[in-house]
Each structure stands twice: as structure tokens, then as C-alpha cells.
Amino acid sequence: MRIGIGVGELSGIPATLDDLVAQAQAAERDGFASGWLANIFGIDAILAAAICGRETRTLEVGTAVTPTYPRHPTAMAQQALSASAAARGRFALGIGLSHQVVIENMLGLSFAKPYSHMKEYMAVLGPLVRGGAVDFQGNEFRVQATMSVTGATPPPILLAALAPKMLALAGSEADGTITWMTGPKTLREHTVPSISEAAAKAGRPKPRVVVGLPICVTDDPASAREKAGNAFSVYGFLPSYRAMLDREGAAGPADVAVVGDESAVGEQLTRLSEAGVTDFLAAIFPSGPDAAASIARTRSFLVGALRKL
Q1: How far apart are alpha carbons 197 and 190 in whole angstroms?
Q2: Within the chain, what is the greatest distance between any pair of CA atoms?
Q3: Which residues pair with 2 in a beta bridge?
Q4: Which member of 83, 102, 262, 297 lies 3.0 to 4.6 Å from 50 by CB, making a disulfide possible if both were Cys?
């Protein structure tokens, strides 16, 4: 299992573009396999990943995740290939639906058919990214287009997928999935088997399973879980994450956070690896009176664990 780390908003630290580059370079120096950027309501994640990729040499940079609804798939393909060229082939495109409250209430778009939207989206995005041309006639998208970005290699497409149909789509059409707030039992019994079966049926390679979770190494796990419960409370109410928490038997985000001392956290990471997780995305959060020291302890543990998993 490779270990990556959150950059920018996924690190919990507000950051300028220069800060993001510095965080990516630090992640590379420490030996992390990848650095991941959220796309919320700040800096554009694909743009930032491209810049970070340009300023590093070995670190994979990826989006976790870029919403599909606000971007036509041809625009997404163009951005992704451009980012891949900038990062010299070390860019991973993580995409997802976002949430009804964002797409409908904030952006004024329809969220009525999320699965069919993503199925058609992938039917346009995949051929453009991988082959440079598409001819697709659907209900939402009707696209005849070609695309050529000099110096680009096709980036892996990771489709944020939680429900069975979306996992099947990720397995058959994407290169893997990227999850958030999904616990080890659900990953072992639901996520990994579903996407792997779909990929095998479609004759595709074994999919990547990138798993993002909050993490804190601490001697006071009760306080840390309380902190996680407060800091990440919103994810307990969004329907897609709530469904995964319910499947896990978790009351809320605090119950799936990776928390404990070095030994306990190591055991939790081992369980994720044994469940079939290929990449762990560490979203470090602090606990206790000294936030900087807390973050440093967790990061130090992860650096030490890089060669063990």
C-alpha cells in the first residue's frame, strides 16, 4: 500500500499557490508517494496539481476530487491532459459527482440522475483522455471532438464511487476509485470486491483503490476522536458518506478516523492494506494543546511507515 498525503485543504492548513508547492516539495522530500488536492471553493485543484507537479520530480499529484457537473467532459479532458504534461506524467485525475446540496442548491444544476450523468460523462472523458477522440450521442452529452495536448500522457482516471452501481462503473470505465469517510469493514466487504469484480468482467487491469481518511497519532485517542467528530461533522450528514458510515456501523466520522498511538495506527493501516487498499491518502488533523507538535508526530510516524506497508 502506497502512502500519500493531503496538500492544501486536505492538510487542514490554508495555503497560497506558493504554499502548495512548498507542501508538495516537502512531501516529496519525505518520501510520500503522492500528494492530493481537494477541489472545494478555493484554488482549482487541477491547476494547483499541475503547478505542484511542475515543481517536483517524483511525487504523483492528484485531485481528490474535481466535481464533474460544473465542467464539460471535453474541458475536463483538456485540463487533465495539460496537467499531465506539466507534471511530466505524474498527474492522477480524481473526479466525482459532489453532492446534491452543492450541485442543485448552490449551482442551480439538476442532480436528478447522478449515475446516468457520470456514465455519459465517462463515455466522453475516457476516450478523449486515452485516445484523443470521441463520438458519443447520449441524453445529456452529444459530443464529436478530438483533442491533442503535446507532451501529455493519459493520466489515470479515479472515479469517486461509494454505491454499488457507481463502483461497477468505476471498475469498468475508470482506472480505480478514490473514497472518503469509508471504513475498513466497508472497504473489505463492499468497495474492493465490487470494483475489482467489475474491472475483471470488463477485462481491465486491477483497479487502484485510493482511500482518504483523517489520521492523528496521539496518546489520547478519545480526545482526538472527539476532535475529528467536530472537525469533520458535515460528512456525517451528506447522504453518500452517511450511507458508507451506516454500512460500517459508524455513528459518525470520528468512528472511521485513523486514531491512536503509533502501534494502534500502524495496526489500522495494516488492516486497510489487507482489505485491498492500494493507496492511503493521509488527511492529518491535530489534537491536543499543541497543534504543530501533533501534526509533526503524525507526519513523522507516516514517514517511518512508508517502507513498511
Answers
A1: 11
A2: 57
A3: 279
A4: 83
| Contact criterion met (CB below 8 Å) for 236 and 230 | no
Q: Is the pLDDT of residue 11 over 90?
A: no
* Helix ranges, the chain (H): 17-30, 45-54, 73-86, 100, 114-131, 164-173, 184-186, 192-201, 221-231, 239-248, 262-274, 291-305
- Cα end-to-end span (Å), the chain: 5
Q: What is the DSSP string of 241-279?
A: HHHHHHHHT-SSGGGTSEEESHHHHHHHHHHHHHTT-SE
279: left (phi over 0), alpha (psi -120 to 50) or beta: beta
Which helix (DSSP H) or strand (DSSP E) does residue 133 occupy? strand 133-137
Q: Which set of grid coordinates corresponds to residue 210?
A: 485510493
Q: Which three cell numbers stand for residue 244?
A: 458508507
Q: Are strands 142-146 and 133-137 parallel, antiparallel or unpaired?
A: antiparallel
How many beta carbons lie within 10 A of that of residue 206, not counting itself?
14
Judged on CB neighbours under 10 Å (0-12, 13-18, 19+), 287 is buried
Copy the grid coordinates of residue 187: 472497504
| Amino acid at residue number 269 | L
pLDDT digits (tens, 9 = 90+) for 235-283: 999 999 999 999 999 999 999 999 999 999 999 999 999 999 999 999 9
Contact between residue 60 and residue 90 where contact means Cβ atoms under 8 Å apart: yes
Whole-number CA gyration radius for the chain: 19
Cell, residue 277:
487498499
Residue keyed to cell 463515455: 123
Counting every residue written for the chain, the total comes to 309
